[in-house]
Model the fold of this input.
Amino acid sequence: MLGIINRKICSGGSSVLTSGQSLQWARSSASALRSYSSAAKEMTVRDALNSALDEEMSADPKVFLMGEEVGEYQGAYKISKGLLDKYGPERVLDTPITEAGFTGIGVGAAYHGLRPVIEFMTFNFSMQAIDHIINSAAKSNYMSAGQISVPIVFRGPNGAAAGVGAQHSQCYASWFASCPGLKVLTPYSSEDARGLLKAAIRDPDPVVFLENELLYGESFPISAEALDSSFCLPIGKAKIEREGKDVTITAFSKMVGYALKAAEILAKEGISSEVINLRSIRPLDRSTINASVRKTNRLVTVEEGFPQHGVGAEICTSVVEDSFGYLDAPVERVAGADVPMPYAANLERMAVPQVEDIVRAAKRACYRSVPLAAAA
Amino acid sequence: MAVWLVRSRTFVHILSKKMRFLGVVPSRSSWDSSFMQYSSSSSAILPLVDNKYGSRPYAFFDNSPTRFLVPRFKSTEPERDLDSQYIKEDEDHDQALDFPGGKVAFTSEMSFISESGDKRVPCYRVLDDNGEPILSSNFVQVSKEVAVKMYSDMVTLQMMDTIFYEAQRQGRISFYLTTSGEEAINIASAAALSADDLVLPQYREPGVLLWRGFTLQDFANQCFGNKADSGKARQMPIHYVSKNHNYFAVSSPMATQLPQAVGVAYSLKMDGKNACVATYSGDGGSSEGDFHAALNFSAVLEAPVVFIVRNNGWAISTPTEEQFRSDGLVVRGRAYGIRSIRVDGNDAFAVYNAIHAAREMAIREQRPILVEALTYRVGHHSTSDDSTKYRPLNEIEYWKLARNPVNRFRKWVEKKGWWSDRDDSELRDSIRKQILQAIQIAEKTEKPPLADMFSDVYDKQPSNLQEQENLLRETIKRHPQDYPSDVPV
Done:
């Protein structure tokens, strides 16, 4: 059923390929972003982040990296490998174990014009510094009427890893994204990692950059354009990873890979899904999401984090506000289980969305399965 | 016999491990030669063995165990080299040990460091209660100009506090907090700093802004939240900010300014500027985790920051005895490897001298300095507090009158012949008029326009905020009666 209501679509377009035409072929490939072009170069997310840090530090002497184990240890996840040797201890600082301490120091340095990149070993530990992030970094520009800006980047792995239990597995996307003054980015591929980290470092506002530990080692094809040192992705624009016409699936970070796999499975059953890689949680690319829903009329949101007050809830509201008449089915929300992450491998698997969950949700949205409530 | 041998071997192995740990035995390699040496010399080892292990182990300190030990404790070249490097004997036969962190002597006497010194750390004082200089050699003389400005600003601060406090009581502003009793800390520290030094205040230091040129009208505008405020009335009263005066924003969560000050200082260090960072906090704020992180980190980073702690005896209703059990904050400096001093915070000259010196050291030596200024919070914590509920009125009156820092400094300036009663009454009249006028003007000045609500959230206004603003304006057009008439659009 086509949407009849003619509402003004915000500018910005829907399926604009933000990084140039050279990646057209990647979108239509069979498996998640794996290309078979002979000219394709592959790069792991880890290397992508490392190269982005390297290039930005080289371009601007005010950029410096600070965190636990970032220097001598080459980074807890080796993201900052080689940077200490190249830039010296003044620009790559190993800190004592005090998140509150080094986050506060980073904020202060940013107040005075440096551009710190603060690494949290995982964002779970950022809670020990959250006052500095929210009350100082996010709000200072506003509270000082523009006199004190905070060009800082907070980065590190976010969300579930493998077998690390409750205090190492929470997703903080919705926590940080609810706070005005912050920008929140969630890269998926290597191109995302490079382009968004460079954009984050160059941005005059405080940016929370949520990586994913399990993606660090994953390899993605990367274009020559993305490898250029001036490459940058716009903040606030989502990317359509796979075009489709039956159902829209939004996802970010690791879940993008799962959504793409689910799309493959659904395609075999005759459902064509459009997979949107959000890339930016705040600002959320509402226009891309809404344009897609107006095309497909069905929406499935996917995230790893807890369901209540999550990113999916925000997306659902956005669609209800802007495109209610276009929806042919209730919005399906796929999220992590509403429990602290259990450690046991079998329980952990059940606490995080799997590809099958996304497939079933998409089918429900397409009225291709019997709703649980009706199965009486 | 075999069993005995095995047992003895184990015992000696354990014992030798213990003794190596205590530094008695240099290493396994020199066991052979050294214990012969020990048994013959009157080294420190003997009492240890007597006290700790009784006489029985001593039985092992003869030749026989070595035969068992030789196969196990074969030394290596590097070990021998290292040992001779690390283990030295001085004339007291004490040996220094090497541990991560450096060399440390050892003692055979078990003694705990006392939780407090015999005496409290004395505070540095220049003027007595009558404004007379106590004989003191390192007294930086100030010019008449500076001294008069110091006194005038202290009076201005005092009067500004009184009148603004009253304004809050009259319902004209929503909140205020005074610096009563701490005028000397405020003004004298500001006078000792240079205009290029960056200040990260807590909230009881508007005197620093006053010294640097923030006008009474500026203070009033901020407190009244009108459109003339350089902070666009975004913050509640007394949360001043002024980049032009190198004064960072007052921030409500306690002690967050401390690690941030270290960050600013780090930035200064990278710039190589002849300036330092001065950051203020109180006895209460020193309990925050940020205090620990900041001091610790500043020493590691060798940051040029002066930590000025105003120990005024009270954190709202919590007296210092309930805040910490250390001898104030000055003793904590050493715990972090930071040079520190305690000063009489009600003595303007002591504060001036100490901050002046601290600043020099911080910049020249690129290190943090801790200055604890002892004082008393004469006023209530803020307009939301009534301190007579938790402390006696006569105590407050005593500090207000007998230990008043402003009066004390006045006596000195007058004795110098730089000030008179007439000057004083003229000044006070003039200041009072200026403050009242500033308040009247501030009260009448318009509140900030609607556009100011949506700007500065980010560097550039994002489209969603633009939409929200447009929507709000449309709503106001459609329902003008719901929008307050005195707020500009």
Chain A has 14 helices and 14 strands. Chain A touches chain B through 46 residues (CB under 8 Å).
